Amino acid sequence: RGFQSSEAFEELLSQENVTLSEVLDDDEVIQECKNQNPKLIDYLTKERMQDLITYITQFPPEDADEKRAHKLPFVACELLCCEVPQLLDKFFSNPTLLESVLSFFASNEKNDTLAGYVSKVCEVLLNRNSSEFLKVMFEQNYSKKVVSYLFNFSVAGLVNKVLCMEDEFLNERINLLKECIAMLKSEDFSCARNASWVVCQLINNQTESNTWKALITTLTQKENLNELFSSLSSNNLKFSAEVLLTLIISPSKELLLSHDESTLSLEDDSAPMMESEEPFHFVKLFVEYLPVMIEVLKKDRGEVILQFGTSVPILGEERLKVAEIINSAIRLDIKEISVEIVKFGVLEVLVDLFFKHQWNSMMHNVFDSVVNNIMSNENTELQKELISRLQERLVEAGTQKWEDQPKPGFTGHLVKIGNQLLKYSQTNEEINSLLAKQDKWTEFISDFLVPKNEIEAKNLGGRPTQMFSDGSEEEQPTTFSFSNNFINEIKNKYTQEIEEDERVDDEKLQDEEMTTDELFSFDTDDKAPSVLEETNQEFNSVNYWKLGFGNLEDLEEID
Description:
The chain is mainly α. The protein has 31 helices and 4 strands. A hairpin with a 5-residue loop joins strand 1 (303-305) and strand 2 (311-313). The longest helix is centred in the last third of the chain and has 29 residues, at 484-512. It starts with 6 loop residues before the first helix and ends with a helix.
């Protein structure tokens, strides 16, 4: 119908005593609202707008029917979210309507469904008039009450949208960010998870604005970093670990490594870092809480029985996140952190996790990254510590015979890590000498590493396999070329056969004294392609393997 109004709906609105529930019960009401039906907009007076708000903010009575409990709140939310300017402006011309929506967060009865409706309406109002919405939200102190509803993901989306606004109510939004950080310690799983999501979204939403820098600077202040690290001892530590990990690997790590918050000028985009011999706040806290992280890594999570009856140890998301944090800290290549990692034997713990959880590929990938980061840096102490903890177990696992049992899941990573050590030993004499001290290192290379590499290098089906990545940042090949030798052998064989056929044809033509004009009835300009040209086209096609072979023995001769 386009923008043509429904006659039945027009007739409904023309009734003198039509109720709001009757209008909302009509199947056309949402479409009519999107079409900005003038009669419908006039019908939704301030009083009826208040009734719409009641549907989405108040829990239905116990004796309410299904329509009141489910359909009417849903339709009311959809109407308010149609983004009809005439309806949205009524909220800002009558502040009591806006306060009625936000007052939902002050209620003691917390309902997930209603919270979703209210947060959806709030986002629409925020888009319509952000300054007026935030003014009411912060001046009436609704922000703290909104944070208490972070167990609902829709509310988390609203908080994220408020934090990412530009150049409005900066101090209030800084306080809102601090409240989200505090929620990371919440015993409520959903609250801690959504608070972590909100903070991570803010970190990743990097902009060049001073507002974003001010919020991230707040996040990297000593008291807030301390809040993040102290949350590592809570039940929901993986969410705090997720925030720390995001902060370390994001471009905002330059702010994280500032010595003092006062050194950051919000008016200076370059944000220069102050030269000082004193460690950063982050480094101090990392060193202070490193024993806590080690305890997390050592904590046993029990076992799980697989479908074929074998029990395997559980790693757990918490230990994986902590291992990723340590790996990211190693990548920063900060001396104070490296010294403490060696002092507390962190690498030995990571090596144990790698070999203990032989079927956990995520842990294997993290450890592989740890090896690459250490070997690519020029920190000899970390390199010595890694080789001393890893090499013997690497050689033992590589040379062990697995005749009566399946090979462990980390076999591929043994090859990759072995190749990394071998690569760096060829350019670093000190690393080479450290590796050479192991008696079975040469045996490991000749009996395990070289055969595995030869298998990886073999061609399969006429295509060379992609070489195993060495972990470097160099771009790996993404396309494959055909085996040139294989193609050339086939082309040479068939070219010889074609030339022989053409020679025989020429002899026949000479015997029959047939001329070219008599043989062909078309012009010389339209000369058809020769048999050799057609065959070459077939060879140049990717379907070269579909060429009809007269005898399978021909293929064996080619091989």
